[in-house]
Recover the amino acids of this structure.
């Protein structure tokens, strides 16, 4: 199984989770919310090759932590993965939109300067502006929209940009989420939990708990659970074998 957007550090016992995930062979992208948290999370995960640690700067914290951009730039050489980054246009976050954009733009430029990164992106109610920023910074790497919730036209723009998508059980609960997933190119879809933020039936998803997403994708793609599992696994392999990785010293950048 693949959980390509999980806040591993926010669970009570991340080390126990990392051990469990490695035993059940779940590949994970452990996303972060602040640059200063990156080294701690990576230290926990370093011995588990199935866990990649992303350097994050969550849009909800962008305004308050804007002085951590320096830390972000100091750390970006340490990993191929950036996230969670992006913009949030929900009413309660609109007042920080200027700083959010400043932070996101800075991050995209830093990714470009490094030759590109895999970028796990938050775009709630802000897909249009996120797309604009990505279009302006096309050499920033491979954008992976996490829990994409824009409209069809925005989805089309994201696909044209070469973006990937990570979809999870919470997103696929909604009709709109499933309709979007059905329009995503199969070969650019990964799965995620977004745990512990995302919950299904009132329970926060555990790291790696993507089974329901596989079941929903099997219905959407009209294929078996096993075929979904193979497809997602081969997608991840393709992504990580992309030019971006080949260009750099990938093994040391987990
Ligand atoms: Mn998240």
């Amino acid at each position: 199984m693949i959980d390509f957007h999980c806040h591993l550090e926010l669970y009570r016992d991340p080390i126990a989770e990392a051990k469990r995930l490695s035993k059940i062979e779940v590949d994970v992208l452990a996303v972060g919310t602040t640059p200063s948290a990156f080294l701690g999370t990576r230290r926990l995960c370093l011995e588990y090759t199935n866990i990649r640690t992303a350097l994050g700067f969550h849009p909800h914290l962008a305004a308050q932590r804007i002085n951590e951009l320096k830390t972000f730039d100091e750390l970006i050489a340490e990993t191929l993965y950036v996230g969670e980054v992006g913009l949030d246009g929900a009413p309660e976050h609109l007042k920080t939109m200027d700083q959010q954009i400043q932070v996101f733009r800075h991050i995209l430029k830093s990714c470009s300067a490094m030759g590109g990164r895999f970028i796990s992106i938050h775009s709630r109610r802000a897909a249009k502006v996120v797309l604009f920023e990505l279009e302006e910074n096309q050499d920033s790497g491979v954008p992976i929209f996490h829990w994409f919730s824009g409209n069809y036209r925005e989805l089309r723009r994201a696909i044209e940009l070469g973006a990937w998508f990570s979809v999870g059980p919470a997103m696929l609960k909604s009709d709109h989420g499933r309709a979007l997933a059905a329009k995503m190119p199969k070969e650019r879809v990964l799965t995620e939990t977004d745990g512990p933020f995302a919950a299904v039936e009132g329970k926060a998803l555990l790291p790696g708990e993507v089974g329901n997403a596989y079941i929903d994708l099997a219905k959407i793609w009209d294929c078996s659970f096993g075929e979904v599992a193979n497809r997602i696994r081969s997608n991840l392999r393709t992504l990580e074998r992309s030019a971006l990785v080949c260009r750099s010293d990938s093994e040391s950048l987990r």
In short: The pocket of manganese (II) ion is lined by residues 5, 7, 31, 84, 194, 197 (CB under 6 Å).
